[in-house]
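DM from R.C. (forwarded with permission)

"hey, sorry to bug you on a friday — could you get me a structure for this? deadline for the figure draft is monday and I only need the backbone to look sensible"
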Amino acid sequence: MRLSYLSDPYKEGYKVQMDFYAYLLQQMGFKVEDNAYFLVCNADREADGFNAEMKFQEVLIPYQWNSDWIHGKVTEMVHY
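My reply, with the result:
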């Protein structure tokens, strides 16, 4: 799951959001580490029945964010 989670095209928005958060924090003068993490909690699909109990698998997914594209995109949106 770790390797393939962020390669799913439906997760692209999560990466954009993390990139933007890092960009904003940097613009506010904060030092931001190169790696961010997603804590993913999914229902355990391997569980043997529901039995009035929900079990979840928790996985920490590392992500090396990239804000290089943001300044140009923001400028483009402002001048649109």
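R.C.: lifesaver. The chain has one domain: 2-78.
me: no worries. The chain has a mean pLDDT of 90.
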